[in-house]
Write a structure and sequence with these properties.
By secondary structure, this protein is α/β, with parallel strands linked by helices. It contains 35 helices and 16 strands. A six-stranded antiparallel β-sheet has the order 1-6-2-3-4-5. A six-stranded mixed β-sheet has the order 8-9-7-10-11-13, sandwiched between helices. A two-stranded antiparallel sheet has the order 12-14. A hairpin with a 2-residue loop joins strand 4 (59-63) and strand 5 (66-70). The longest helix is centred in the middle third of the chain and has 41 residues, at 433-473. The radius of gyration is 32 Å and the shape is globular. The two termini are 58 Å apart. The structure holds guanosine-5'-diphosphate and magnesium ion (MG). Residues 145, 147-153, 165-167, 171-172, 194, 251-252, 254-255, 280-282, 513, 637, 639 line the site of guanosine-5'-diphosphate.
C-alpha cells in the first residue's frame, strides 16, 4: 500500500538493466540511511543499473562515475524518479534564470565551504538536483499513538478531513489518509489505529507496525497525551528503538496545564533525542509549529540537529549486556542493517517476537543467533527473576520514570476528587450504574421517536403532496405508476425516517465524544463476562446500532481471537439504523401510544438474543479463554457542538446517499416486479398477478406459519440488499389510493413477529461482506446467513403465537 502521491516515484530495486533514475530520498532507519548516503547515494544524483539478472542479488549500479553493488533489499529503500521527470519538475517549479552557480554535491546551498574539496555540479546535474528536491517535498507522515490521545482530531485539523472523533478506544479501525499543503510541501497524513505498544499482539499493533516497516513513512508523528505521559511514552520508547525520523506532539497540553503540572519539554526532548511540540489539537494550538518541526526533522535542518540523536533506551546492565551479545551475532551478517537496526532486532527477539524472528530467515547464522538469544533469555530470567518480556517492559517504564522525574512536576492537586471522579462514582457506581445506563438508553429511544415525529410528519405530508401534484399532472399509464407509486411513495417512505436517524446518531456521537460510551463498556464488562466476552466487545456491539459494517470492523480492537469471532457473529443482532424505519412504521401503525416502548423492547430483545447466542457460541464453537485487560476510562470531555453536528450530518449524508443509490434501485426493481406483467389498471388485480406475487407465493409456504402473507415475504426478500427497502416495498404493496392499508391486513401480533424477523434475519449484503473480510473466510459469512435465518424464523414463530391475544 503506497500513498497515491508517489505514483511516479519508484524504488531503485524496480529498475531494469540500462535504466536510469534520479535519487529522491532514502528511506529506512537512521543507520541504514547514513551508510547508503556515505556510499554516494545522494539526492539528485543519477543512478544507472549496470547489470541486473532476474532473481540475482546483489545488483550492480553506477553512480558518481563508479560501480557499486547493492542488495535488492537495500535498493528497495531508495526512491527514484526518471531523469525526464526530474528535468520537468526543475523546469516547472524553479526554473533557474541568470548565471548558473555551481554547488557542491550533497549540500543544498550555493557557495558552501566544501565547494572546492568536493566535486562540483554542472548545470545539468543542478537541474536534476532541483527536480529531485522538488519531488522530495512530498512527505508522508504516519500518526502513531495510544487510543484517545487525539490523533484523529489532529489529523482532521491538519488535513481538513471529517473523520470520526471519539472518546474511547477503538474508533479508528483502519488507516485513513489525508492530504495537506504547507510551506511548499505536500503532506500525506496517515491516521493509524491507536495502540499502547507495537509488539504485534493485536491486529492493530500488527497493522501499525506493518505500515511503519513496509510503507516507510518519511516521518513518524508520535501523538502523546500529555496528561498521561507515563503510559503514552511507553510506545515512544519502542519507536525510539526503531531509530526512525520522529516528532512528538505533546497533545492535550491544555489538560496538563489545567492540572497545574509543569513539563520541561525542552529537557525531555533532549533526553529522548526526539523533538517535541506542545499541541491542543481541538483548539488548533501548536499545529503550525508541529508541521514546521516535521519539515525540519525531514530535511535534517540545523534547528533540530541539536536535539535529534538516536538514544539507546537504557534497559539496565543485565539486559543491555544480553542485547549487545545478540547484536554482535546479528552483525556478523553483511545484510544485518538492511531493514532494522540490529539493536531493535535484538530487543524484539529477546522478547520472543515471532514476526521479527522471521527477519532472521535472511541471515545465514539464524540458528546461532537464536541459540545466543535462548542463552541470554535464561541468564536474564536467572538474574532478574522475571521473563525477558517483562524485564524489558519494566526497564522501559523505569527509563520513562527517570526521564519524567527530571522534567516533570506535578502541580498541587486540589484536595478532594476531580469532577470526573465525582461523576464516575455515581455513573459507574455499584447500584446506580446499571439503572442510569438503561434509563439513558430508554430516553434516547424515546427522544428518537417523539422528537422525530414532528419533522417526520412534515416530510410525510410533503411527500404526499408531491405525489398528488405529480399524479394529477401526469396521464395514467406505467410511467405515472413508476414515478408516483415507485419513486415517490417508495423512496419517500424511507426518506421520512431521516430525522429519527439523525437524532439517534446525535446521541451516539454524544456518548462517544463525551466519554460515556467508555463507561457504558465498563458497566457492561461484568455482564459481558457472563456470556464469555468482556467489555471490549461492547463498543463494537454498540456501534452495531448504527451500522453493522463498521461495527464488525471495529472488532479488530479485541485481542482474543475467540472473543473477536463471537463478537463478529452476534453483531448482526444489534439492530442497525436501517431496520429502524421498519419498526417506526409498524410500531407507529399498530402501537401508536407506546411506539417508543415497543421499539426499545425490540432493541433489547436483539441484545438479549445476542447474549444467548454468544453464550452458545462460546460453549460450542469457541472456547473463549479470557485475556485480562484494562478498560480505560478517559476523563469526561465536553464535546463541541460543531463536531457532534458534523458527525451526525456525516451519517445523515450516508443515509441520503444510500437512498439515492441502493434503495432507489432496489425500490425500482421491486416496483417493476409488482407492476408487470399484468399492467392491470386495477391495483389489487395487478398486484395479484404480478411477478412479485409469484415470487412471494413461492416462498410464502415457508413463512406462512408465522402469519406472513406473500407481501411480507416479498418485503423481506427485497430487504436482503438493504433493510430500508423492506419499508419502501411495504409502502408500495400496502398503499391503496394514497392510504396505507396495512392495519387492515396484519394483526398486532404478526406485526411484532415481522419486526422480530427483520431484526434477526440476514443482516444485509454489505455486512455479510464485512464478516467475510474480518473473519477471513466465507465459511463464517455463510454460517451467519444460515443461523440468522433459522433463528429469525423460530423467534418470529414464538412471538406470533405468544402475542396472539393483542
Ligand atoms: P484518537 O483516538 O487518538 O484518534 O483521539 P480522538 O481524536 O478521537 O480524540 C479523543 C478525544 O480527545 C476527543 O473527545 C477529542 O475531542 C479530545 N481531544 C483531542 N485533542 C485534544 C486536546 O488537545 N485537548 C483536549 N482537551 N481534548 C482533546
Ligand atoms: Mg482516532
Amino acid at each position: 500500500m503506497r500513498s497515491e502521491n508517489v505514483e511516479s516515484m519508484s524504488r531503485l530495486s524496480e529498475l531494469n538493466t540500462g535504466e536510469k533514475g534520479v535519487i529522491v530520498k532514502i528511506l529506512g532507519h537512521g543507520g541504514f540511511r547514513k551508510r547508503i548516503i556515505e556510499m554516494g547515494f545522494i539526492q539528485g544524483k543519477t543512478v544507472e543499473v549496470v547489470h541486473r539478472a532476474p532473481l540475482q542479488d546483489p545488483v550492480e549500479y553506477q553512480i558518481l562515475g563508479y560501480h557499486v553493488s547493492l542488495r535488492l533489499k537495500e535498493a528497495s529503500q531508495i526512491e527514484v524518479i526518471s531523469v525526464e521527470e526530474a528535468e520537468h519538475l526543475a523546469q516547472e517549479h524553479n526554473p533557474k534564470t541568470g548565471n548558473f552557480v555551481p554547488t557542491c554535491i550533497g549540500c543544498k546551498e550555493a557557495g558552501c565551504k566544501f565547494r572546492d574539496s568536493i566535486q562540483q555540479t554542472t548545470q545539468e546535474e543542478d537541474a536534476l538536483y532541483r527536480g529531485a528536491r522538488e519531488k522530495s517535498k512530498e512527505i508522508t507522515v504516519a500518526l502513531v499513538g495510544n487510543p484517545n490521545c487525539g490523533k484523529t482530531s489532529l489529523f482532521n485539523r491538519a488535513s481538513g478531513s471529517h473523520q470520526r472523533v471519539g472518546n474511547y478506544s477503538g474508533v479508528t479501525v483502519d488507516a485513513v489518509k489525508g492530504k495537506m499543503y504547507y510551506k511548499g510541501y505536500r503532506f500525506t497524513l496517515i491516521d493509524l489505529p491507536g495502540t499502547y505498544s507495537i509488539s504485534a499482539y493485536s491486529p492493530e499493533e500488527k497493522y501499525v507496525r506493518h505500515t511503519i516497516i513496509h510503507d516507510k513513512p518519511d516521518v513518524i508523528l508520535n501523538v502523546v497525551d500529555s496528561s498521561n505521559l507515563e503510559r503514552n511514552l511507553f510506545l515512544t520508547t519502542q519507536l525510539i528503538d526503531m531509530n526512525l525520523k520522529m516528532v512528538i506532539a505533546l497533545n492535550m497540553y491544555d489538560e496538563l496545564e489545567e492540572k497545574g503540572d509543569v513539563l520541561d519539554y525542552g529537557e525531555l526532548e533532549r533526553l529522548l533525542g526526539v523533538p517535541m511540540v506542545p499541541t491542543v489539537s481541538v483548539k488548533n494550538r501548536g499545529i503550525a509549529t508541529l508541521f514546521d518541526t516535521i519539515i525540519d526533522v525531514y530535511e535534517e535542518n540545523e534547528s533540530v540537529s541539536g536535539i535529534i540523536k538516536h538514544i539507546h533506551v537504557n534497559h539496565g546492565p543485565v539486559i543491555e549486556k544480553s542485547i549487545s551479545r545478540i547484536r554482535e551475532e546479528i552483525y556478523k551478517n553483511p545484510n544485518a542493517t538492511d531493514e532494522f537496526t540490529p539493536r531493535y532486532v535484538a530487543i524484539r527477539i529477546l522478547q520472543r517476537d515471532k514476526e521479527i524472528e522471521k527477519v532472521l530467515d535472511n541471515f545465514s547464522n539464524k540458528d546461532e543467533i537464536l541459540r545466543v538469544r535462548d542463552g541470554e533469555a535464561l541468564a536474564i530470567e536467572k538474574e532478574l527473576h522475571d521473563s525477558p518480556e517483562n524485564a524489558i517492559m519494566d526497564a522501559k517504564y523505569g527509563f520513562i520514570d527517570g526521564a519524567l522525574r527530571e522534567t516533570y512536576r506535578r502541580g498541587e492537586r486540589k484536595p478532594g476528587k476531580t469532577l470526573t471522579e465525582k461523576i464516575d462514582n455515581i455513573v459507574t457506581g455499584r447500584w446506580l450504574g446499571f439503572p442510569i445506563f438503561l434509563i439513558a438508553m430508554y430516553l434516547i429511544f424515546q427522544a428518537t421517536f417523539t422528537l422525530g415525529q414532528y419533522p417526520m410528519d412534515w416530510i410525510d405530508s410533503g411527500v404526499g403532496w408531491l405525489g398528488e401534484r405529480v399524479g394529477s399532472a401526469m396521464s395514467d399509464g406505467w410511467f405515472k405508476a413508476l414515478v408516483v407509486d415507485g419513486i415517490i411513495t417508495g423512496v419517500g417512505g424511507v426518506l421520512v425516517f431521516l430525522p429519527n436517524i439523525l437524532i439517534l446518531f446525535f446521541f451516539i456521537s454524544l456518548m462517544e465524544a463525551s466519554g460515556y460510551m467508555a463507561r457504558a463498556a465498563f458497566i457492561m464488562d461484568r455482564l459481558m463476562h457472563l456470556i464469555g466476552l468482556h467489555g471490549r466487545s461492547f463498543i463494537p456491539l454498540m456501534m452495531g446500532f448504527g451500522c453493522n459494517v463498521p461495527a464488525v470492523m471495529a472488532t479488530r480492537t479485541i485481542e482474543n481471537r475467540n472473543a473477536r469471532m463471537i463478537t463478529i457473529l452476534i453483531n448482526p443482532l444489534m439492530s442497525c439504523n436501517a431496520r429502524l424505519p421498519i419498526y417506526l412504521l409498524l410500531a407507529g401503525v399498530f402501537f401508536p401510544k407506546s411506539a417508543g416502548l415497543v421499539i426499545f423492547c425490540i432493541y433489547l430483545g436483539g441484545v438479549l438474543l445476542a447474549g444467548l447466542m454468544a453464550k452458545l457460541f462460546s460453549k460450542v464453537l469457541f472456547n473463549s479463554d479470557e485475556t485480562p485487560f484494562v478498560m480505560e476510562l478517559p476523563p469526561y470531555r465536553i464535546p463541541t457542538l460543531k463536531s457532534l453536528l458534523r458527525d451526525t450530518w456525516d451519517k445523515g449524508k450516508q443515509y441520503l446517499h444510500k437512498i439515492a443509490t441502493v434503495i432507489l434501485i432496489g425500490t425500482l426493481i421491486v416496483w417493476a416486479l409488482s407492476y408487470f406483467p399484468s399492467c392491470d389498471p386495477d391495483p389489487a388485480a395487478r398486484l395479484e398477478h404480478s411477478w412479485l406475487a409469484a415470487i412471494g407465493n413461492f416462498i410464502s409456504p415457508v413463512l406462512a406459519p408465522l402469519g406472513f402473507h406473500w407481501q411480507e415475504s416479498v418485503s423481506l426478500l427485497s430487504g436482503m440488499a438493504a433493510k430500508e427497502i423492506v419499508v419502501s416495498t411495504m409502502n408500495m404493496l400496502y398503499t391503496v389510493d394514497g392510504q396505507l392499508i396495512i392495519s387492515n391486513v396484519l394483526t398486532p401480533a404478526i406485526a411484532l413477529a415481522f419486526m422480530a424477523f427483520t431484526l434477526i434475519y440476514f443482516p444485509c449484503v454489505a455486512t455479510i461482506g464485512a464478516i467475510k473480510t474480518e473473519t477471513g473466510s466465507w465459511k463464517w459469512a455463510l454460517f451467519t446467513v444460515c443461523y440468522t435465518l433459522v433463528l429469525a424464523w423460530i423467534v418470529a414463530f414464538i412471538v406470533s403465537k405468544s402475542f396472539a391475544f393483542l
